[in-house]
Here is the input.
Amino acid sequence: MDTVTNEQLSKRERREQEQQERIKREQRERQKELLRRIGLWSAAICGLGILVWGLAKLGSSGAGTINNTTLAEPVTGEDWIRGNKNGTVTLVEYSDFQCPACRAAEPVVAELVQKYGDTIRVVYRHYPLNALHAHAEEAARAAEAAGRQGKFWEMHDMLFENQARWAAENNPETLFVTYAQQLALDTNKFLSDFDATEIRQKITAQQAGGDRAKITATPTFFLNGKGVNLQNFGDLVDMVGAAVEKTIQK
Here is the structure.
């Protein structure tokens, strides 16, 4: 009888142990699910925060504040152009390489070039906000120096892609030289052009043109010569698309 009792006790203990293990497994699974949901909510909140921050940057940057009666200065041979140089739709952007909102605008502008490149020409003009961005004018000079070796747009893209890194440096010139080397530029010529008076004068002249166009911040866009009022970059896509469609219908 004692043997039976011990066997029953052992079975009961095993059942209790199994039940406890099952409870622990269920608790672990619930904890995992809770953590997964927290992670998803955190990611969603973070994404929303980034979106709000981006829109705030767009607003605070002054993009969209230009009056549509304001005219951009005519495109000249001094301008850097993407797309069709003889395009019937012209989008002029006044930009600052150290401006976060300008960096955010670049994928949108690049997509417009890819989509409408046969019809539009996109013009990049310098408007470094020197009072806010300590290295913006230097970055503009780096892009112009690369342009003298046929790599303006390549340096343009590299500067925006690496904005957070070089913008944090006390002296970003070393990094600019590194970028020039990555683009297979003649670094001696790059450094010489980086300090060239003509490049400094070009940037200053484009800033002055922006001032005459009543620009107060970056990025600021002009479509077919007229300033555009933007609430977000989606507005820019819609406006350019409508301008291209109007040209096609003609």
Observations:
- Residues 37-62 have pLDDT under 50 and may be disordered.
- The longest helix spans residues 2-61.
- The radius of gyration is 29 Å.
- The longest strand covers residues 89-95.
